[in-house]
Amino acid sequence: MKKILRSCLQRRDELYKLKELIELDGAVFGKRHTGNQSTVLVAIEAKNWVDERGRAKSKAGFVKVSVSAEQKEKVQSFVDRNRTLGSMVNTDGEKAILDIKNVDHDYQVVSGDKTIIDCWLPWVHKFISNVKSWVLGTHHGVSSKYLGLYLAEYAYRFNRRHAPDTLFHRALVACTLS
């Protein structure tokens, strides 16, 4: 039953597109020596504005997650499926992500420097850190076979985090429309 529910939530989130400024990065889940390792692509909107006092503000917007390798074709397909025209994509210096076609993109080689990472791709790295903590803390690890469905559940909940009281009813709608 949980598998069906998670797949409905995943299909519902596939309807939405990312726009404006998008942070894109890859992450590795699981351990290689157990044979349960998966690569995940994560893209998240970064919403930036200036408040009434003139201070720069930023927050995370909608997120998209896909279990796939960081290869040029897969990254290009992921970006093409999940963004609107005119979006700007920020990435790190990963070779597979550098040559994204049909999109404005910028990159910065971060080489593990925490201060540069926090300034350049803050929201995507916070999301990756939080979802890894959720997988390990709540589920004590997830099989790579089902990782995509667990990530879909987390992304669905993350994308609707500002209205937690309506989450159950929105999930019911997602299930009935699937």
SSE layout:
Layout: H1 2-13, E1 21-29, E2 38-50, E3 56-67, H2 72-82, E4 88-91, H3 95-98, E5 104-107, H4 114-120, H5 122-138, H6 147-159, H7 167-177
Parallel strand pairs: 1-4, 4-5
Antiparallel strand pairs: 1-2, 2-3
Q: What can you tell me about this protein's structure?
A:
- With 178 residues, the chain is of the alpha/beta class.
- The chain contains 7 helices and 5 strands; from the N terminus they run αβββαβαβαααα.
- It has helices spanning 2-13, 72-82, 95-98, 114-120, 122-138, 147-159, 167-177; strands at residues 21-29, 38-50, 56-67, 88-91, 104-107.
- The protein has a 5-stranded mixed β-sheet with strand order 3-2-1-4-5, with helices on both faces.
Give the overall shape. globular
Total tally of structural domains: 1
Helix content bin: 40-55%
Number of strands: 5
Q: Count the DSSP helices.
A: 7
Q: Strand-residue fraction?
A: 15-25%
Under the CATH scheme, the architecture is 2-Layer Sandwich
CA(first)-CA(last) distance: 14 Å
Q: Kindly name the structural category.
A: alpha/beta
Spatial ordering of strands, largest sheet = 3-2-1-4-5
The residue-averaged pLDDT reads 82
CATH fold-level assignment: Nucleotidyltransferase, domain 5
Strand and helix order: HEEEHEHEHHHH
Radius of gyration: 16 Å
Largest sheet: 5 strands, mixed
Under CATH at level 1, the class stands as Alpha Beta
Detail the poorly predicted runs.
Answer: none
